[in-house]
């Protein structure tokens, strides 16, 4: 499959990995938008949150818990933001579900 995040999981595209288990992979964003910017993805190809199925409930939970664990490990005790860009109007540019973990600076509302 021609998916850059599947290739990152497979190791055929290099990444700065921060975590991996049987279902979840996490790595530094190549173009960070905050002092800490980590992407947390399912190893299984799910194109977007809109494509998640009831049987994906377990991995969706694992993704969120991984974000919280990584935030703790990376010293984001003062807070952080989790973003899931979904579809063209949601600003999604890579069609493999990913959670952005952003932290290390003050976040603002509304986002762009
Ligand atoms: P989206 O725009 O879909 O919300 O997020 C996609 C993210 O993937 C962007 O923040 C972009 O910088 C990141 N990204 C795109 N290609 C690569 C890559 O090859 N390696 C890494 N580490 N991040 C990537
Ligand atoms: Zn993929």
Give an overview in words.
The protein has 112 residues and is α+β, with helices and mostly antiparallel strands. The chain has a single domain (4-103), classed as HIT-like (HIT family, subunit A, 2-Layer Sandwich), CATH 3.30.428. Helices cover 21% and strands 22% of the residues. It is built from 2 helices and 5 strands, in the order αβββαββ. A hairpin with a 7-residue loop joins β2 and β3 (36-42). The chain starts with a helix and ends in a 9-residue tail after the last strand. The model has no long low-confidence stretch (mean pLDDT 98). It binds guanosine-5'-monophosphate and zinc ion. Zinc ion (ZN) binds at residues 3, 5-6, 45, 96.
In total, the number of strands is: 5
Task: Walk across the major sheet and give the strand order.
Answer: 1-2-3-5-4
Give every kind of bound small molecule, once each. Answer: guanosine-5'-monophosphate, zinc ion
* pLDDT averaged residue by residue: 98
| Strand fraction | 15-25%
Compute the gyration radius: what is it?
Answer: 13 Å
Structural class determined from secondary elements: alpha+beta
Low-confidence stretches: none
Largest sheet: 5 strands, antiparallel
**CATH class label:** Alpha Beta
Number of helices: 2
Second rung of CATH, namely the architecture: 2-Layer Sandwich
Give the H and E element order.
Answer: HEEEHEE
Whole-Å distance between the termini?
A: 31 Å
> Remind me, CATH topology?
HIT family, subunit A
Oligomeric state of the chains? single chain
